[in-house]
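Following up on my earlier thread - several people asked me to post the actual chain instead of describing it. Fair enough. Here it is, all 333 residues.
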Amino acid sequence: MDTRQRYRAYADRIAPVSPTYAAWARSVNDALVALLDEVPATQRQPELLFAVARRLGADPADAGSLRALVREARPALVRALTTATVQANDPRRLAPVVPVLAALAAAADRPLGLLDVGAAAGLCSIPDRVTLDHRIRRTGALVRMHTAVAGPAVHLVAEVTGTPPAPAAEPIRIGARVALDPNPIDPAAPGASDRLVEAVPPEATDRTALMAEALRATLVEPPVRIRGRVPEDLDRALDALPGGCEPVVMTTGTLVYVPGAGRQRFADRLRERGVRWVALERTGILAGVAATLPEDVDAGDPDAFATLSFDGRALAVSDAFGTRVRWFGRTLG
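Reply from S.P.:
Thanks for posting it. Predicted structure:
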């Protein structure tokens, strides 16, 4: 898929929820394609470009402002885009992840030591502070899958098909949290919220409200923040987890920004260290995980945009944000 095709596909996918971002994606012209060709392939994601453009003053309400930015501030846009990271890490992506972490925590003799890779401000570092309901697509019934620990928390509802893990009997036990990110955000710092919502379409006020709730929950027990990338800094981040915890690595929409060879080194290193790994990543970018998908999964289906996996084995597929999940009925085994 070339750059124009990627942005057209993104426009079609985002149009129902963000006409402004769809218009920006459809405004991609030869000049913008040439600019994107100057930055690494992992830096050409629409969400990243739009976040950087907004940071540099482009107005999403003006469909022509993206082209204007290319004309008027091209060097600054290239510089910013080359090193930028998407910082939102939408907490809705915890909906598919929480049942897996709950099952893992229930089977462990000690609390989990969570390493959140690509954590930004740690909005997905709070699976224990998520109350999760499954809405069964066939019947419309609600099933409580996990109840958050006491205190600030977020409430998520996912529409599901298939057979998920059993509901959690008690909240996930987390003994330590480490957040690894190239540009980690202190959730208590002034302007943290503004920086997080840069990557969120302006129409998505429900998302920004949920992110504000997650930010409050994150402040209760902020993760230890480590500046770094994977695979280069994976060992350093894992070594920051204290003894007495069951180490678990979590990636949620992170590895698409890591070059393919780096993704494989990351997966190989986790296997070498014997560390459990829960991932919700774009379907197909992890070859080993893709090989474990059922034959009827179509990566072009919006409801199979992301694959949930445990230790490299696919457990479910979902839409981009984990709000619609198809479980395969597989055990964590």
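The longest strand covers residues 154-161. That should answer part of your original question.
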